[in-house]
Design a protein that fits this description.
12 strands; 4-stranded antiparallel beta sheet; about 20% strand
Amino acid sequence: MMRDKLLNHAIRQAYGDTLASDQQPAFVLYLELEPRQVDVNVHPAKHEVRFHQARLIHDFVVSALTDALTQLTPESRAVSQPGLTVQEPPAQPYRHVVSGNSRSTYTADRRPSDTAVKQELSYWQSSQSLAATTQAASPMPAITQSPLLITKNRYLLLQGGDDIVVIDLLPTLGAYFAAQRQPSQPLLLPQRIALNAQQCRLLTDRAEQFNRLGFDMLLTDQLLIVRAVPLWLRNTVVSQWLGEWLQQLCLQPVDDLCHHLLSMLLNANRVSAGAMLESAPQLLSAPEWWVSAPLQLEATLNSLTEPKQ
């Protein structure tokens, strides 16, 4: 049995006003971590544990338990679906959760039922494998074209028979990703990002667009906790680009969030166009999405074989 102030604080924060001042949360918490991420100090006087990534562990526990507790009422089920959850700053030490048009208010004598917590744990576990399940259920179509190379982290050369086509992946992927709600990839550890007031307003005003892209985020006061990102961003480091992207959107508002994000990441080489293409393999056999032009291969070959003057 270990005692840890970090975990106790995270649990109390997640329970918020579901507990009266004279109540204590009862819980069983399972965390699976690599041994090198934890230091354990055991001697007769005390048992201590120290996490190397303490802040990430704290935010992860708060996020997971907040999701579980919001399942107490049917109306709050929408809170744990991928999207933007706005958590208003409290007038008192405890908190009140708001998501879209749905409100969930807890009173001191309401405590989570075993059924509600089990349902939420089941949802959380299933969300971890959402991306893998989606991919397994959608087999890759037969590809008749052969990708040759990607140049400038943007342009794909695709061969079909004797013809070669140049595809501009920026508008092609942007249109494809924006046309349908994207699956989310839950992060192993939620990312914590401090925002300014303007960025918070942007997230709140355009919440549905961020939801459609596949983001799952918790906004409380001026702190953003990112719990899931679009599947095609699963290999990126969220903290390295999200704050900058939001600031760019505040300075120069755009209608197409997806195209703007792709442009920023591809142009700065923060993500590989090849990795983006792996998230949408159907594009190789769906020319209706392409922004492309045929390569004038015949003229090029002729110029090589013509005698020099």
